[in-house]
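Q: Sequence in, structure out?
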Amino acid sequence: MQYKFNEENLIAELKAYVDKTYDQHYATDKYQATDIIIDSGHGTGFCLGNVIKYAKRYGRKGDSAEARKDLMKIMHYALIQLWVHDQENGRGLDTRDLPNPIINDGVDWSHAPPRNSLNDATPDEWDKATKSWATNPNGPLAKSDENRYAQPKPMGTGRSA
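A: Exactly. Output:
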């Protein structure tokens, strides 16, 4: 196909930009903030909010290179929103058959029904899951986040005079 507006090269450039974002500091943790925001049910607002933010900023911050980078950010957030849209409307991949580092974490998830989002869980299901996490030595609470989820110590213990 012969494109009129250099789409083939621009799409390749967008792909290179997106690939580079996975090497940046906010992508080095196990979960990106975007993953957590989407799984919390706020993906559409987050993505479209960022599209609006960078569209309003376009041409107002920095030089033409910075403006071009804002356009890349707009397209990246639009692509993420397209993925969110497809997931919410049944057009996404069925991820239940794909390897999942969250599900393959050593925690027995057999008691939990399949879910599309963390927001789909009932309070009872959350209680069961967190009890399972707390008692499993290989579960998520046994890893680097254990202190964040630690139960408070009773008054009068563990204090120095």
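The chain has four helices and no strands.
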